[in-house]
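Repro case for the chain-ordering regression, as requested:
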Amino acid sequence: MISIKDIARQVGTSPSTVSRVVNGKAYVNSKKREQILSLIKETGYVPNKAARSMVLKRSFAVGIIVPDTFNLFQQQLFSIIERRLESLGYHTIFFFTRLDLSSEEDCLDRLAMEKLDGIVILQEMHLPGFFEHFSRAGLPVVASTCKYHDYSSVGVKEKQAAFEGVNYLVGIGHKKINMISGVGFAFGTRRTEGYYEALAFNGLSRDESRVSSVQYYTAEFGMYGMSDLLQKNRDFTALFAATDELAIGAIRVLRDEGIRVPEDVSVLGFDDIYMSNYIVPRLTTIRQPISEIGEQTAMALHRSITGGNVSAGFDIELPHRLVIRESTAPPAAGSGTDGPEGKRLS
Amino acid sequence: MISIKDIARQVGTSPSTVSRVVNGKAYVNSKKREQILSLIKETGYVPNKAARSMVLKRSFAVGIIVPDTFNLFQQQLFSIIERRLESLGYHTIFFFTRLDLSSEEDCLDRLAMEKLDGIVILQEMHLPGFFEHFSRAGLPVVASTCKYHDYSSVGVKEKQAAFEGVNYLVGIGHKKINMISGVGFAFGTRRTEGYYEALAFNGLSRDESRVSSVQYYTAEFGMYGMSDLLQKNRDFTALFAATDELAIGAIRVLRDEGIRVPEDVSVLGFDDIYMSNYIVPRLTTIRQPISEIGEQTAMALHRSITGGNVSAGFDIELPHRLVIRESTAPPAAGSGTDGPEGKRLS
DNA sequence: ATGAAAGCGCTAACAT
DNA sequence: ATGTTAGCGCTTTCAT
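-- result from build under test --
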């Protein structure tokens, strides 16, 4: 492999000068600069990253902590973040983590083995070791679609967005609205709060039996949540699912039960993943600006890494938007899947 | 950051000895070894990767070339490969590439900037520069779900699998079978061949107007393909989509046209992505063993990197399986969406 | 069995 | 404006 010395020798100069040219520093004779540049192009010389990283004490690698069981929104998001980071000159190292503490420990160990320039987290960590590790190492952190300590974060106003979505449901006439939510992620909690607040705002009573809490936010768990809800009570005309994938799983179960969407039950999702516009029926949902979130996450981290003001956490709140499609409609007259006549028995 | 020298000093030995212990070499006094090991644990010392990589001339990083517009199958696949590679001690660097040559050139440039230990490709590259680069650099390559030169590959018997799928369609009574296929990827071509062969095998005539070729294998392009087909001819009772995502897009259009699946038209996909079991109707499809493919891809690359026999390409063919769900059924009597009466006009 | 020394490719003072 | 030098953290001869 051709090195900086080779270039220097062939031009009849020193490695320092070549280094200056490569790194765009001033104080280089322009004739020499041209000469060096053209030789570099000709030979295809590329600086050795390991060597640079050693002397610069920067790895040009950032870590991203993601849930082991990610849904499509998260998958799309981390693909975007990865690409943005790449274009800013960073490599991305993934740390897949489950929700239990032993998995977090494992993640922390692997994290400690890497000399990283920064961290993106898509999942709240509970082990105090993380926070300690990050602050000891002076590592910039940005939390994307979640919150972590007082580090910078990028996302939407979860509660507000959920509030608006449920409010829309009420607005078109629904009074009996169920919800599938989850634990383990802050956004689930926030969305549930928004749901309850919208109910309260509209004078609807809070009924915990209308909410099912699942472990992960995937379609599979959407099925569990919906089955659970159906078992408890069939008297509802709308469902708010904390994520689109949850909604897709829920619709699956509804269909299997012969309950039509949206004729019998309206379904509202959250995220607006790519698939939501292709499934039958097209999903009404609250759109998160996923590209912008990814972009801002990468940029925020880059700023923290280069700017150095690690401690100054700021929250970037991007605009959400209710996207009305086919899975929601006003409730039918005398509605409820289990009307007064109790015509549908499982 | 604590270094090998620190450890050496504190134990009262030399860096060489510590290095030997860290790398599990022989010839170290066992008492000293214990001492060093415990100090390492205590201090949390971790060898600096950049330094190691510099002297070892290995980056512990592998590149993966993936299509810029990936479908869910590909996304799932590269997530799996990434994880397997990680557990084998490699970092993964993504190279997203479009299908045009200028994008390939760009990719090649970026590739050349990295000192990689190996390459995974999910997409056939056309620029001869790639092959030259790989062979000049002595880079092991493995092609996953595609073929590239005579490098190792991992995947299913595409043609055979498609053949079986279409054969199943014929078996349940379909005679007018359309297909949405694509260009740009070898698997699309192979699946189309399988489709044609199954028709021929069953004495059905080859009709190119029954096939629509799209650019990418996503749901969006599934919609284009289906619209295209519908415009040409509405006389068909089944559709074979080259990927599940294509099938999902196609079903979308069919529904919008009031054509029922599977009552009016059966739809068969390929891949068995996660979503296929949740959509309405559940998709009948040809399953690719995605986890095994990912696993084998990572292992094959690892073997090539460590074994060194770069040139010896081998093909790993994993078993596919037809998964019959709800989107296919025997054709209705007097079938065809556009019966003899021509009752459905667009 | 262990240590000294050289060197991987690069950058950043420091000199000039 | 440019060259010299030292050193980043590690592994690996080569001695001992």
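Ordering looks correct now. Residues 21 and 37 of chain A are 8 Å apart (CA to CA).
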